[in-house]
Specification:
The chain has twelve helices and 38 strands. By secondary structure, the chain is of the alpha+beta class. A hairpin with a 5-residue loop joins strand 21 (343-348) and strand 22 (354-359). Helix 8 crosses helix 12 (670-692) and helix 11 (647-653) crosses helix 12.
Length: 698
């Protein structure tokens, strides 16, 4: 065969991929090349930027064009910045919204919804994290932790309308970003871990008027099921309903203009032990599921459940991506998800049919997914509540192989980039545990080490950025990170993948090989996904910096200094940037001298156990190592004499309920609170002695 024939053959073989890329890039009517107009850049939520000024050849020239410290309580940033017509719209904790000039970082306006945090645990916890806004038709929409859906003017930040979309006193809250399409605003809620019955609602974007609601688990049959779909779901619960709620859609909500469908991902339910949650078995629909709904009416179309009868909190609320793939010579319209359970799923998005499901990390709770039934083939020992001594150590961890941090799909490369992590969790039965009668360890370490006040070992954890080929159902490349819980991902037409890390590095990788081509120290853990936009023919890459959510306490336990504890900040990079970040300032507040420690070692050990079973760590961090005193949730090692004096009243009588500290009256007694206090005093003494370089309490 001559050279011309060889060239023609290569071109012929490339045609399907070229056509696929053209289709994927052209079906973005909701997208804008210059802006980042919606949560996932387009309704497909691929988080792929069409801009190609920054490339593999020149990315090393990126420098800050400007930076802006977000002037709020320093809880970090989790939101995706939205860019419309040269303006950045960004949310932070307590659902605050900021409008910023995208060219120079100048603040334009700030809206504070005056969030209330005293209605319940979920309301208080959710206030510390917000994953973003939606912008459409001159309005900016945000969900608040006290259950309001709020619309403000995109021009001025003035309130236009608000509606209560859930009940914060019933353990509902909102952390996820709304989505807007076809004149409707779609919003979910959480948090299923404390008993809320999940649902998704649609509202008129112009007025806030209610349009429809889809419940994700069946309610009390005595009250009558809302529709035949709830009757069908009720058959999968032994008691005929979900008495403790569950299946909240707290993150993934994706609109599909091709089929006028809305896809939502759902959480699990409590108790985590299925034999307690619904004695008698059952799949427990629609927990841990991807559900397709008619976007106009909310009518059920189809569902796929990733983990029936879940026992590990392996929810499927994670990011969903839409794409067209060439599979076995056939063009398929698919959705893709890497839920917490460690398997990467490709589904036909018109029918919900399973196309492929392969592990993207080292999974030990199941051997594989049966492609005929769609169900996982579990390892029996993974169901800890059936075994002796009623415990099991498995991978992924409670935090999943992939958590909320968004993925990215690069159509030209044909790869999905997953911000993953791989480490084990030990689950065990403890009837006193407030999170559903089950204890687990985020870090994969033995609880006895925690009781002794020892730090977890970082070698038990692996953070990863994985380039996944969804057609071949295998990883093409992966890079390891020092820590888990690294930031969301963006890829670009310049052949690049951008991601921030838990250790404070903002990196650019070759999209095809994974080679790191550029890195910049942004001085704080990065959790939020980056975005890119163009103004006056200049491409900007924008990083939202600052550890948020669970990372508030994961990173300080592992990291030190500026790499963990830097500010909440926006940093915009360009190829001709001339700015630089200021020298990092590590806030080291003085530790107040704690009260004398008179408790026995056994009381301190018991106090450490109560700290875990009472779920204190969900807010105040594992082994009471908080992020730092400047956040909205205090590091308890910095308690003042006044706090120590009022400790019983704070914990049992709600003295600080207005600031979000719930009462444990009825859950703990005074003896429990006293040993809990002793444990915290011991932790404060450790830090006090460290700060003062002493080894005695004298």
């Amino acid at each position: 065969m001559n050279d011309n024939s060889s060239s023609l053959r290569r071109l012929y073989l490339m045609i399907p991929a070229l056509v696929l890329a053209i289709v994927s890039l052209s079906g973005r009517a909701d997208s804008s090349e210059n802006d980042w107009p919606v949560h996932g850049q387009s309704h497909q939520e691929q988080r792929f930027s069409l801009l190609d000024q920054v490339t593999t050849k020149n990315v090393h020239n990126l420098q800050p064009e400007w930076y802006l410290d977000i002037p709020s309580i320093d809880d970090g940033l989790a939101a995706t910045p939205i860019i419309r017509d040269g303006i950045i719209y960004m949310s932070s904790s307590f659902a605050n919204i900021y409008a910023v000039d995208a060219a120079n970082g100048e603040p334009l306006w700030h809206y504070d919804p005056q969030t209330s945090v005293h209605s319940g645990f979920s309301n208080s916890w959710a206030a510390r994290v917000n994953r973003g806004v939606a912008v459409a038709d001159g309005l900016v929409f945000v969900g608040t932790p006290d259950c309001r859906l709020v619309a403000v003017s995109a021009k001025s930040g003035e309130l236009r309308w608000q509606t209560l979309t859930c009940d914060p006193s019933a353990e509902y809250a909102i952390t996820g970003a709304p989505r807007v399409a076809n004149g409707k605003v779609f919003i979910g809620n959480g948090i299923s871990d404390f008993g809320a019955r999940g649902y998704v609602s649609a509202y008129d974007a112009a007025t806030g008027d209610f349009i429809w609601r889809f419940w994700t688990v069946p309610g009390n049959p005595g009250d009558g099921h809302e529709n035949e779909i709830m009757e069908m779901a009720a058959e999968t619960w032994a008691d005929g309903w979900a008495p403790n709620g569950g299946a909240s859609a707290w993150d993934a909500i994706v609109f599909d203009p091709e089929f006028n469908q809305l896809y939502i991902g759902t959480d699990s339910a409590i108790p985590y032990d299925p034999s307690e949650r619904s004695p008698g078995g059952g799949d427990h629909l629609f927990t841990n599921s991807i559900i397709a709904l008619d976007a106009d009416t909310g009518a059920y179309k189809w569902h796929y459940q990733t983990v029936p009868n879940d026992a590990w909190d392996y929810n499927a609320a994670n990011h969903i991506i839409l794409a067209d793939l060439q599979i076995s010579g056939e063009s398929r319209q698919v959705l893709m998800q890497a839920p917490k359970n460690g398997f990467f799923y490709v589904l036909d998005r018109q029918t919900g049919a399973l196309i492929s499901a392969r592990p993207y990390i080292g999974v030990t709770w199941a051997t594989h997914i049966d492609l005929k039934t769609g169900r996982p083939v579990e390892r029996p020992e993974a169901r800890y509540y059936k075994n002796q001594p009623r415990r099991a150590t498995i991978v992924p961890s409670l935090l999943g192989g992939h958590n909320w941090h968004p993925m990215s799909y690069n159509p030209p490369a044909g790869l999905v980039y997953i911000p993953a992590h791989e480490f084990k969790t030990t689950y065990w039965i403890n009837p006193d545990a407030k999170l559903g009668g089950v204890m687990s360890d985020y870090y994969g370490d033995d609880l006895d080490e925690k009781k002794a006040g020892l730090k977890p070992e970082t070698q038990n954890t692996i953070g990863r950025l994985i380039a996944w080929d969804p057609v071949r159902a295998e990883a093409k490349w992966a890079v390891n990170h020092e820590l888990p819980m690294n930031g969301g991902v963006m890829s670009s037409a310049g052949g690049l993948v951008f991601q921030g890390t838990a250790t404070g590095q903002f990196n650019a990788y070759d999209a095809n090989t994974g080679k790191r081509l550029w890195s910049y120290d942004v001085q704080a853990s990065v959790q939020a996904p980056p975005v890119s936009y163009r103004i006056d023919d200049k491409q900007y890459v924008l990083a939202a910096v600052g550890g948020s959510g669970i990372a508030r306490f994961m990173v300080p336990l592992y990291g030190t200094g500026k790499n963990a504890l830097g500010p909440s900040r926006l940093v915009a990079f360009t190829l001709d940037g001339r700015d630089s970040l200021p020298a990092p300032v590590l806030h080291q507040a003085e530790v107040p001298r704690p009260p004398e420690l008179t408790a026995s070692a056994e009381d301190i050990r018991r106090g450490a156990e109560i700290y875990e079973v009472a779920a204190c760590s969900v807010c105040h961090a594992s082994v009471a190592v908080g992020r730092r005193p400047l956040t909205s949730v205090p590091d308890l090692r910095y308690m003042t004499p006044e706090t120590h004096k009022d400790f019983r009243n704070i914990v049992l009588r709600g003295y600080r309920r207005p600031t979000g500290m719930i009462s444990y009256d009825g859950l703990l007694d005074e003896a429990d609170v006293d040993v809990l206090h002793a444990f915290l005093i011991s932790r404060q003494w450790e830090l006090y002695q460290q700060q003062n370089n002493t080894h005695t309490k004298e």
